[in-house]
Amino acid sequence: MRRVLRGVAYAVLPAEVVLAVLLVAGVRIPGAALVAAELAALALLGAEVLVFVRLRRRGLSRREAVYELVPEPVVRLIGHELRLMVSLVRWVARRPHGTGPGLRAFGHARDQAAYMYGFAFVCVVETAGMSYLLASRPVVHAVVLVLDVYTVLFVVGLHAASVTRPHVLGGGVLRVRQGGHVDVSIPLERIAAVRHELLFSHEKEDGVLNLAVASQTSVTIELAEPVTAVRLLGKRHDVRTVRCHADDARALVAALGRALTPGRTAPSPAPDRLA
C-alpha cells in the first residue's frame, strides 16, 4: 500500500506543479482537467492520512510513520528549510540552539559573514530589478516576487543557522555542526587527538568529514573509533577524522585538551640545576 501511495504521489504532485505553472502563464485549461487533478490530490492526501493513523496505531513514532510514507530525502529537505526559518527567529531573539548550563559554545560563522551578506545584497538587488521589469504583468510579478523574497530569506537563513548553531562542548560530548544540515555528536572517549591546523583545500577522502567555513578548516580531530555522520539527504557514512572551523580555534583546541585530560594540572617547574 505504501509503495502504491508513493507511486501515485510521484505522478500527482508533479502534475499539480505543471498545472500551477500553466495557470500562471495564462494557459487555458479545461475545467474537467482541473477538477480531476484536485480530486486526485485530495484522494492522495486522504489515503496518506489513513495510512499514517494505521502506522501510529501499530506503535510507530511520528517520525517513523512519516518516513514510511514520504522518502527520507524529501523529509530532510523540508526539515532543513524549516530549521533555516526558525534560525532567523533565534538569531533575532539571540537564542542559540543546543546551548545551556554546563555547555560551552564555539561560534564558527564569523569568517563567512561578509560574503553571505554580499550574496544577500545581490539577491535584494535582483528582486528589485525583476519587480521593475515585471510591473506590467501582475500575476507573473507576484509569483516571481514571492520566489525572490523567499530566496533572500533562504540566504540569510543559511547564515542565521550557522550563527545560532555553534559547536558545543560539554556533558562528555563534542557536538560539531555546520548550518542546519550537519550535526554530529562525538563522545570524548572516541577522540584520540585534536590539533589546531589551518587548511584551505580539502580533497574528498573516505572516512574524513570536512566542515569548511569560507573554504577553510582550523581544527582537526582524529578519532579512535568512527562516528556516523548524516548528509543533507540522509546518506550515512562513518568518519574517523573531522575537520571543522571555529572563530577561536585555539580556544576550542585548548578546551578539548582540558576535557580529554580532566586531571591535568599546571606544568611542574623546571628542577634546579645541580651545583
Tell me what the structure shows:
The structure is a single chain. The chain has 275 residues and is α+β, with helices and mostly antiparallel strands. The chain has three domains: 2-70, no CATH class; 82-164; 168-260, no CATH class. Helix content is 51%, strand content 20%. The chain has seven helices and eight strands, in the order H-H-H-H-E-H-H-E-E-E-E-E-E-E-H. It has helices at residues 2-24, 31-57, 62-69, 72-93, 113-133, 138-164, 249-260; strands at 104-106, 167-170, 173-178, 182-187, 191-199, 208-210, 217-230, 236-244. The strands form two sheets. The protein has a four-stranded antiparallel sheet with strand order 1-2-3-4, covered by helices on one side. A four-stranded mixed sheet has the order 5-7-8-6, covered by helices on one side. The longest helix is centred in the first third of the chain and has 27 residues, at 31-57. The chain starts with a helix and ends in a 15-residue tail after the last helix. The model is unreliable at 264-275 (pLDDT under 50).
A few lines on this structure:
With 275 residues, the chain is an alpha+beta fold.
Topology:
Elements: H1 2-24, H2 31-57, H3 62-69, H4 72-93, E1 104-106, H5 113-133, H6 138-164, E2 167-170, E3 173-178, E4 182-187, E5 191-199, E6 208-210, E7 217-230, E8 236-244, H7 249-260
Parallel strand pairs: 6-8
Antiparallel strand pairs: 1-2, 2-3, 3-4, 5-7, 7-8
What's the tally of helices?
7
| Ends distance | 89 Å
Low-confidence stretches at least 5 residues in length (pLDDT < 50)? 264-275
Q: Spatial order of the strands in the main sheet?
A: 1-2-3-4
Strand content: 15-25%
- Helix proportion of residues, in percent? 40-55%
User: H/E series, N to C?
Assistant: HHHHEHHEEEEEEEH
Structural class category: alpha+beta
Number of strands: 8
Kindly state the mean pLDDT as a whole number? Answer: 85
Q: How many separate structural domains?
A: 3
Major sheet details: 4 strands, antiparallel
Morphology: globular
Q: Tell me the Rg in angstroms.
A: 25 Å
